[in-house]
Specification:
By secondary structure, this protein is α+β, with helices and mostly antiparallel strands. Helices cover 27% and strands 33% of the residues. It contains five helices and eleven strands, in the order H-H-E-E-E-E-E-H-E-E-E-E-H-E-E-H. Strands 2, 3, 4, 5, 6, 7, 8 and 9 form an eight-stranded mixed β-sheet that branches. A three-stranded antiparallel β-sheet has the order 1-11-10, with no helix packed on it.
């Protein structure tokens, strides 16, 4: 727990400084051949937020993902963070904590909110997604089976391993996409907006490790 708390304290400070944003996002952004994907939210995007929750797994920092139910209308069967569209006038932090409670059974008081990462544009839902970063203080997950098939904690060290990073060429909606993704211990690849958010988090994690002399 000590390393996780130290990381959380570092991130709480670091999130108040300029963030890598698009530079980090682009490393994991799917792109149609010959075209750049828009990374910043576009005018008229729907406000949304996700909860990027840090936990301890085998004495090391990990981030909580969910395998979305195959019954959902959007992003079914994909790896994602707990999250969703904001209600009118709802701040991103409130959205993220509300969705975290609805999807994985973690109440707002169980989360130490550290700040927000850079927003990401999600073309498929025309959403401006704000990642709210937090640390789990205590508690266990109770997944909502209507939305979540499985809670998937992913060690940050696993994502640092170069052999887990792949690039594929996928056909989606009649388009050929170049897709960077992580092959992790899950039924599906880790890609898209979720991977873009994690790319920025990993840049900050590397900064933390350099400062702690743990490269």
């Amino acid at each position: 727990m000590r390393e996780l708390v130290q990381l959380a304290e570092f991130l709480q400070w670091r999130l108040r400084q300029p963030l890598p944003g698009e530079v980090a996002h682009r490393m994991m952004a799917p792109a149609e051949e010959g075209r750049d994907r828009p990374l910043r939210p576009l005018p008229g995007s729907h406000p949304s937020a996700v909860l990027v929750l840090l936990v301890e797994l085998e004495a090391a920092p990990a981030v909580v993902l969910t395998l979305r139910s195959a019954q959902l209308r959007r992003h079914r069967g994909e790896l994602s963070f707990p999250g969703g569209m904001s209600m009118p006038g709802e701040p991103p932090m409130v959205t993220a904590l509300r969705e975290g409670q609805e999807e994985i059974g973690i109440a707002p008081e169980q989360v130490w909110v550290l700040g927000t990462l850079s927003p990401v544009y999600v073309p498929s839902s025309h959403a401006a997604m704000v990642p709210v970063l937090g640390m789990l203080r205590w508690g266990t997950f109770v997944p909502n089976r209507e939305e979540v098939e499985q809670v998937v904690p992913v060690p940050l060290e696993l994502l640092r391993q170069g052999e887990r990073l792949r690039v594929g060429f996928w056909e989606r909606d009649g388009r050929r996409l170049r897709v960077p993704y992580w092959a992790i211990d899950a039924p599906v690849p880790l890609w898209g907006a979720t991977a873009m958010v994690l790319s920025e988090l990993l840049v900050l994690y590397e900064e933390f490790l350099r400062g702690a002399g743990q490269q």
